[in-house]
Amino acid sequence: MRARDLAADFPTIALGTSAMDAARLLAEHRLPGLIVVDDRGAPRTILPGTQVLRLAVPGYAQEDPALARVVDEAHADEFARTLNGRTVRECLPEQPRELPVAAPDDTVLEIAAMMARCRSPLVAVVDDDGRMIGAVTLQALLNAVLPA
Amino acid sequence: MRARDLAADFPTIALGTSAMDAARLLAEHRLPGLIVVDDRGAPRTILPGTQVLRLAVPGYAQEDPALARVVDEAHADEFARTLNGRTVRECLPEQPRELPVAAPDDTVLEIAAMMARCRSPLVAVVDDDGRMIGAVTLQALLNAVLPA
């Protein structure tokens, strides 16, 4: 079994994608993160789901969650609004997460090794031109190798 | 909306759970990780999904994925077998990941702040005795706060 057999369609975003659209993708698909591709469709990095929250939640609340308690419910529900007008570029961590990239004929063990080394539950699979053709998730990998 | 309203059942494991059972849970449920509880049912830490792979994949393959290529398919398929007889205790990272813990009446903003600060897409919700009654996922949180 090779990367091409394990790869499935996976939602991608661009640096210019709105933070709200990224949040919606995360909410709809129960994904560990979103793959950011460049203009050529080449995978560049991963946007961890919690990074979107880092943009949406006021700094004081992140530093001391107890302070978040004094904010009333109405304000709490408003935090999604702070995402408006922001883009994925602003959500990315200062130290971008390494997104492992595999070739279509990489083996199961190679993909597992990439995931283990990068601690990434996602591996992007690219064609000869570097364009993303799908992604292998930890779940797909485990389902392929675990005894039935 | 409070933590109790957002919390849902979430699979838990113990330190003595077999690594194979943990891998199966990850494969079946598409979870970002598994919550490890102690004998009293109190949440202790999170087992990130990729940690199971770190135990299953030979060290040489993690350090240099290119080396994994020379291992033939038959061997690659065998790695699940290395999990046999190992436990969750052996899978945990040396630096355990912080699992945020919320009380049932914590607000949405408090939960979001915990997720953002700990970079954890999961928050365990515990009762007055510290026993886990469920977990809030990033998806549940986003679904609650994003405009329809």
Automatic annotation (TrEMBL), chains A, B:
The keyword Transport does not apply. Pfam families: CBS. CDD domains: CBS_pair_bac (cd17788). Keywords: CBS domain. Residues 95-148 form the CBS domain. InterPro entries: CBS_dom, CBS_dom_sf, Diverse_CBS-Domain. It comes from the Bacteria. Gene3D superfamilies: CBS-domain (3.10.580.10). This is CBS domain-containing protein. It comes from Bailinhaonella thermotolerans.
